[in-house]
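Propose amino acids for all 495 sites.
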């Protein structure tokens, strides 16, 4: 067997193997000291890329959880302030109801108004001073704010909170006018079916959305109100219907008779002896006797010369076959409709000898917690093609008089509805955030476990590798020593 001195192949092989075991030993010690299987890209390039991607997701989710919790805290701050605002509004409403009773004197109402004024100012103060981390929450400027509640772009929650200032909350109202409260007359004593309402389509746009309501000609206010209220869930707008008509200026005393129709399908015969044409008390009594059948009640004016009939459901008020037993030819009475606010339509003359008939249509009062619009392709119901609501705010209201107290009750109801809707919205958002946080915590935990399986070292395996590498190192060093001694055997040949 040849013997070489310049090149010790066995020593070189031993060194090469020793280097490999050294690298293996180094890797095992690095993994055991760091706890990670992947400490650099060379350990596992694909695994490193996967683990880094998971790290981004995990850290993003953990921050999203913190963001969501911060958002929930913000909402809790706003909702807590709103709760006190609701308490104030309840007290304002209570004071308004108290003031609306005529058991109070003027001085009593002055005292009530002083408390109302302080409550109005406190509502405004709460609106302007409620903050979270320097951000105003309830003054109307907190609009379309976005919270990043996820690890990726687009994982956002948008929130707007309206103003709870006393001047920003109340009842948003609009009222129909025009031909819907007009009078029709038929000189042939036939029942009048027209009330002036034309076929049209109403488009109502409110806080909840937009909806169309199709009306046919001569629909009563009650029918229109029912159709609109059927869309309240889509628009957030409600309607009440009322019909008022006035009978006045009787030309002669006598037995007054006519058919009366409200919510009844068949005319009810009304008859009363009026001894004095300037005192319609007996006629009022006769009308009210049939209120259960017609849904129409009558009230006598202060001077007793006129009476006002009201259908609170909004049914048309129709008079047919008007007659006066007075011998005077052409004995007459005046009949007209009453619009919202008390404005009267043009008088119609009912002539006894002609046995005249007339019909009055009602008006609609729209209301909502938020602003809205009502548009129509006709102007016989609405005064314009497009109509916007008007806010009667709590802040501008008063309880100084009975009439103003009544309006304040409506404004307080609208404000309470608005605050309750905002609080409900914030409550729903908080529940959503709870679910979001729970989901992200679960996802983060699962991703962490998956990352661990990719990146973390198996200590049992690496301990075994370490022991193996240490033994190989020791054995390699021993063999290297022996391999280095082999060339000295050549000296025996030189002896």
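Proposal:
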């Amino acid at each position: 067997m040849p013997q070489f001195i310049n090149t010790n192949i066995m020593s070189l092989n031993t060194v090469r193997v020793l280097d490999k075991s050294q690298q293996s030993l180094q890797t095992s010690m690095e993994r055991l000291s760091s706890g990670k299987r992947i400490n650099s890209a060379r350990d596992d390039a694909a695994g490193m890329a996967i683990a880094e991607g998971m790290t981004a997701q995990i850290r993003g989710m953990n921050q999203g959880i913190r963001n969501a919790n911060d958002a929930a805290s913000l909402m809790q701050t706003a909702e807590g302030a709103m709760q006190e605002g609701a308490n104030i509004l309840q007290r304002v409403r209570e004071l308004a109801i108290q003031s609306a009773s005529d058991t109070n004197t003027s001085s009593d109402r002055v005292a009530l108004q002083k408390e109302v004024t302080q409550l109005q100012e406190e509502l405004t103060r709460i609106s302007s001073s409620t903050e979270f981390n320097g951000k105003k929450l309830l003054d109307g400027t907190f609009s379309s704010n976005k919270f990043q509640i996820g690890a990726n772009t687009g994982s956002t929650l948008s929130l707007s909170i309206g103003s709870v200032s006393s001047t920003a909350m109340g009842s948003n109202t609009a009222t129909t006018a025009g031909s819907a409260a007009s009078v029709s007359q038929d000189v042939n004593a036939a029942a009048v079916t027209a009330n002036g309402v034309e076929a049209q389509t109403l488009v109502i746009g409110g806080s909840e959305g937009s909806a169309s309501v199709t009306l046919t000609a001569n629909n009563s206010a009650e029918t229109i109100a029912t159709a609109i209220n059927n869309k309240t869930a889509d628009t957030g707008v409600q309607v009440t219907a009322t019909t008022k008509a006035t009978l006045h200026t009787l030309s002669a005393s006598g037995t007054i008779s006519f058919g009366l129709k409200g919510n009844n399908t068949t005319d009810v015969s009304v008859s009363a002896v009026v001894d004095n044409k300037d005192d319609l008390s007996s006629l009022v009594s006769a009308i009210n006797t049939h209120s259960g059948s017609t849904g129409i009640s009558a009230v006598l004016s202060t001077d007793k010369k006129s009476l006002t009939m009201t259908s609170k459901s909004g049914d048309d008020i129709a008079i047919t076959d008007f007659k006066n037993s007075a011998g005077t030819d052409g004995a007459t009475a005046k009949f007209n409709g009453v619009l919202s606010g008390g404005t009267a339509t043009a008088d119609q003359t009912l002539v006894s000898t002609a046995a005249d008939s007339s019909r009055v249509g009602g008006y609609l009062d729209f209301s909502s917690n938020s602003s809205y619009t009502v548009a129509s392709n006709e102007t016989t119901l609405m005064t314009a093609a497009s109509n916007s609501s008007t806010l009667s705010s709590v802040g501008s209201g008063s309880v100084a008089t009975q009439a103003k107290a009544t309006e304040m009750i409506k404004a307080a109801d609208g404000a309470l509805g608005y605050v309750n809707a905002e609080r409900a919205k914030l409550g729903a958002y908080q529940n959503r955030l709870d679910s979001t946080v729970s989901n992200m915590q679960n996802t983060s935990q699962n991703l962490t476990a998956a990352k661990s399986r990719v990146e973390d070292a198996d200590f049992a395996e690496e301990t075994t590798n370490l022991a193996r590498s240490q033994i190989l190192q020791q054995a390699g060093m021993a063999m290297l020593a022996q391999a280095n001694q082999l060339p000295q055997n050549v000296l025996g040949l030189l002896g």
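The domain at 49-168+416-445 is CATH 1.20.1330.10 (f41 fragment of flagellin, N-terminal domain). Residues 375 and 386 are 4 Å apart (CA to CA).
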